[in-house]
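Internal tracking record. Fields below are filled automatically when a chain is submitted to the structure queue. Please do not edit lines marked as system-generated. If the sequence contains nonstandard residues, flag them in the REMARKS field before resubmitting.
Queue: standard
Priority: normal
Entity type: single polypeptide chain
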Amino acid sequence: MVDLYESFYGLERDPFRLSADHTFAYPHGSYRKALSYLKFAAYREEGFVMVTGKPGTGKTTLIAEILSGLNRDKVVTATLVTTQLESHDLLQMVASAFGLEYRDASKSSLLLRIERFLRDNHDEGRRAILLVDEAQGLTLDAIEELRQLSNIVVDGCPVLQTFLIGQDELRELVRSPQLDQLRQRIVASSHLDPLSAEEVTAYVRHRLLAAGWKNNPRIANSVLALVHHYSGGIPRKINLIMGRLLLHGFTEGRHDLVREDMEAVIRELETELLIFNVEAGKRPAGLAEQDGFLEVAPEPEDGGHADGEGGSEASLAPAEGGGEQEDAAEPQLRPDDDSVTAGAPDGVPDEARNTEGGSRKVNYVGGALVLLLLLLALAGMTLTQRDRMVRDMSMPGETYPPAPVPQGEGAIVAPDAQNPLKSGLIRRDLDETAGVTDKPPG
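SYSTEM-GENERATED OUTPUT FOLLOWS
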């Protein structure tokens, strides 16, 4: 089965191998986010890191990409594939993974050997990373042993960092009330989601191009709709289906792979019990509209990347080293990205800026209306009402109308005839209105 359809289609390597290969990694939304978080955690060099997701979503690929960016001369890694392990069994496996003698050793002896190993590593300028795969199978006691190992510190520096990798059940396990101390030591936690229909198309194109694809074979868009439907967006299942499709095309001598070819492959895989879909008998929605073929380099929409979604999340570089794959996987903000508003902080969408601008306009209009109503109210007031208002606004101890203010030696300022509030004319009008005169009664 070696090099069957690769030569037939002019490919440099198999684009859809089932084994994890981070050089094929496609940075879709949740993968890109997880990669950023894990790089940050690797930079911190302490505590626990948790990665969860359904089987086949790319957890192992993600970890391999993180490790590829570290300086392997200064990092010692050990991997555990666990099932149901008790605390003593776990310590034996940790010792074995780091190359230490574990047979016939008591628990205390194992702890001392592991601690001595970690301290020696630190003294030699190296750090240790423990990868625990299928961690959802750990018992609470086993997880507590891992937490105790994370407490080993030399010169104020932690000497062990642990990655917990598992399925969705791991998240439920970590939520246990007994693991509160563990949760406090988790530096980063990420979950890998299945791919959307658009991401499946971009994923297939990405892997084909990484294998040297030059539009041979041509793959109908309706094929990709079926791939998403039967894979559920799980990358490993996508690889299984697409690998069988290329094999089918090779055996049938086809360079155009269309819906009928895909349906034949699906029937074979269902017969072999390699795929199962509860809606297998249903035709995927919108399949009739999926005409045309997958393009090698489609026109980016709105300035986007040809093989993936744009993103505004910048990844933190690992503590040491780095690789081209990480650089390729880190999206950058684009000047013409529609999600970024000109003149606004990066990442502020248009609708947010428009909402803010609209709020300002409403405030301006509302303020103008209040001022206009106030002016109209003042214009409609009688002199008596205005005088009473001014009187009420006077400070305690003031007289109204105000007494003449001396201006220099022996000078008295005459009342302002142009301003009735200052001249006392309003006061005279009030007295006359009230029937008060300067003449004595009767």
